[in-house]
Structure formats: C-alpha cells, structure tokens
Amino acid sequence: MSSLPIRSEILDTGNFAIKSARIVVNAPAAKIFEILTSPKRHQEIDGSETIQANFSGPDRLVLGSKFGMQMHLVIDYKILNTVVEFAENELIAWRHIGRWRWRYQLKSLSPTSTEITETFDASDIPWICTLWLKVRKAYPWTQMAIAKSLVRLKEVAERS
After folding, report:
1. What CATH number has the domain bearing residue 119?
2. Most buried of 45, 91, 156, 159 (most Cβ within 10 A)?
3. Can you name the residues that pair with 76 across neighbouring β-strands?
4. Cα 14 from chain centroid (whole Å)
5. Contact predicate 102/87, CB 8 Å
6. Is residue 3 part of a domain?
C-alpha cells in the first residue's frame, strides 16, 4: 500500500503579487518557530532550492535582525534580509532590498499541532521590482516554491 505524498494547500489570495500556502504540522508552534528563527536552518526548508548558505547574522532572529544568505538562481549572489514582522511563536517575516516579504504565520491547533501559512508578498514594492518579477515569471514559480517549503518545514519539524 502506497501513501499519498505530503502536500501543502495553495491559497487563492485574490492578488497576483501575493502567493500563499498552508500546512498542518504535528509539532508545537514553539518548535517550528525555532526553525524559522534560525537562519542557519533556512537551507533545510527552502523549497526553491536557491539558498546555499547563511553567511551573516545572529543565531536567532528577532525584529530588526539582519541576516545574509548565499543564493544561487542561475548565478551565485548574496542577499541581505531584515526581519520586519515578529511575534514570538506566531509570526516572522523578512524582506530584502527588493522589498518583497516572506511571511510565516503560525496558529496553534493543539499543544502538538500547528497550522503554518507562508506568504510571499510583493504587493507593495517599487514598480521596477514588479517588472523584474513579471519578466522572470517569478510569481508562478514562487507559488510552487512556497508549497514545497512548507512540506520541507513539516518534514524537518516532525523529524527532529
């Protein structure tokens, strides 16, 4: 008997510049939040497979933290992110110079179960960045990367 693959639920946000998905993880919110607030662990959960390494920043992120990532998407590059939203065990979001945000919202369903919604939000970015994302067809690709990231986050949180 084969089991079905784990999938996250892709959400219709009604806005082409906002891509979102959610998943239920059998782990407490605090455990999941520790993974999200550790930039050294972001490569483990990256569904886009663009993160190569964390090269700067604190061990644990808080509001205002800056952290650098070594990336690869066709070419190698480095990006500096800043945490712009933060509520312990409930919410973390960061952005970089392009100003789009990656947001994780956690909702405890029970002491051992958490619903996570990940959102890529490019709704309030400079027009040149919007043009760049459209030209490289980033929106559909990003939607799939978010869905994959949540599956990876579930696997990591439930395994450890």
Report:
1. 3.30.530.20
2. 45
3. 72
4. 20
5. no
6. no
Q: Is 105 exposed, middle or buried (0-12, 13-18, 19+ CB in 10 A)?
A: middle
The per-residue pLDDT for range 7-30, each reduced to its tens digit, is: 999 999 999 999 999 999 999 999
Does residue 2 lie within any of the structural domains? no
Q: How many domains does the chain have?
A: 1
CA–CA separation, 93 and 25 (whole Å): 19
Decide if 98 is inside a domain. yes
- Contact 67/54 with Cβ under 8 angstroms? yes
Dump pLDDT digits (tens) for 56-104. Answer: 999 999 999 999 999 999 899 999 999 999 999 999 999 999 999 999 9
Q: Which tokens hold the place of 96?
A: 């970089």
**72 lies in which domain range?**
9-159
Asked if residue 83 lies in contact with residue 65, where contact means CB atoms within 8 angstroms, the answer is: yes
1 part of a folded domain: no
